[in-house]
Design brief:
With 114 residues, this protein is mainly β. Helices cover 8% and strands 32% of the residues. It is built from two helices and six strands. A hairpin with a 5-residue loop joins β4 and β5 (91-96).
């Protein structure tokens, strides 16, 4: 498996770390893997680890390392390359800037993420 720490995205690509999935809703409902499965999620959130030099042209705004954003999830037509799953349940992946929907603040809930 490719070590994500050696990846330096170019052009419109962002190396990102997904936000961990919530295990329980604020109301106390336990979310099983079947409910939070990747194939059922259409909007997800992540933090930018590294940003290619062409991202601003595609997104229309500057995205910096550490910025949190939401994006179209792991859909069949999305241009995403997954590198590895981390112990906290998050994933490190490359995403094309065209799949980024918006920059969001910390604490903003998106889909099954917190």
């Amino acid at each position: 498996m490719l070590d994500w720490e050696t990846v330096k995205p170019r052009g419109p690509w962002v190396l990102a770390k997904s936000d961990p999935r919530a295990k329980q809703t604020k109301g106390g409902i336990i979310l099983t893997d079947q409910i939070t499965g990747i194939e059922k999620v259409s909007i997800e959130s992540a933090h930018a680890l590294r940003v290619g030099d062409g991202v601003e042209k595609v997104v229309g705004t500057k995205i910096s390392e550490g910025d949190r954003f939401c994006f179209r999830g792991f859909l069949k037509d999305a241009t995403i390359k997954e590198f590895q799953r981390l112990e906290d349940g998050s994933t490190v992946f490359l995403i094309n800037a065209k799949d980024i929907i918006a920059l969001i603040d910390e604490g903003t809930d998106v889909g099954v993420f917190s």
